Amino acid sequence: MLLDELGSYLTNQGLVGGSTGWRLFEGFIPATPDQVVVLLDAPSGEPREYAYLLRRPHFQVLVRGGPRTDGDSLTAARTQIIAILAALDGLVNTTLGSPGVYYPYIWAIGGMADATWDVNQRPEFRQNYRCAREA
């Protein structure tokens, strides 16, 4: 599935998991921990009937940092979403996941949204993407 393949890619790129301090979640935004990267499905606006062999899904990356009281949390979250943007935007002719799904392209849509703050005063950044993926 799309989010699994993207999650594996970000893990293999060293952007989440392990000793990075960033926990990866797919499909939902958890209440804890503070510092997370979340992959979410997003509506594409295209009827699925158009794509028999190639799907063009949209997805969103959300990065949430630590509480506002931590002065570096905003900078850390911004740095993380920019690193993910650099890893994903413009990725072409790539096979992701196991057994491997071909992605002709992954593109960022628009600019990165300015930081918002969740109810626990943690900064969140979001970036939307469009990709083409073999069906």
Termini separation:
10 Å
Structural class: alpha+beta
Query: What is the assigned CATH homologous superfamily?
Result: Phage tail protein-like
Number of helices: 2
Describe the 3D structure.
- This protein has one domain (2-134): Phage tail protein-like (STM4215-like).
- Helices cover 20% and strands 36% of the residues.
- The chain has helices at 2-12, 73-88, and strands spanning 23-26, 36-42, 54-55, 58-64, 91-96, 101-109, 116-117, 123-134.
- A hairpin with a 5-residue loop joins β7 (116-117) and β8.
- The radius of gyration is 15 Å and the shape is globular.
- 24% of the residues are buried.
- The model has no long low-confidence stretch (mean pLDDT 91).
Task: Considering the chains and any ligands shown, give keywords for the structure.
STM4215-like; alpha+beta; globular; 36% strand; 135 residues; 2 helices; eight-stranded mixed β-sheet
Give the topology, please.
Layout: H1 2-12, E1 23-26, E2 36-42, E3 54-55, E4 58-64, H2 73-88, E5 91-96, E6 101-109, E7 116-117, E8 123-134
Parallel strand pairs: 1-2
Antiparallel strand pairs: 2-4, 3-8, 4-8, 5-6, 6-8, 7-8
Quick summary:
The protein is of the alpha+beta class. The protein has helices at residues 2-12, 73-88; strands at 23-26, 36-42, 54-55, 58-64, 91-96, 101-109, 116-117, 123-134.
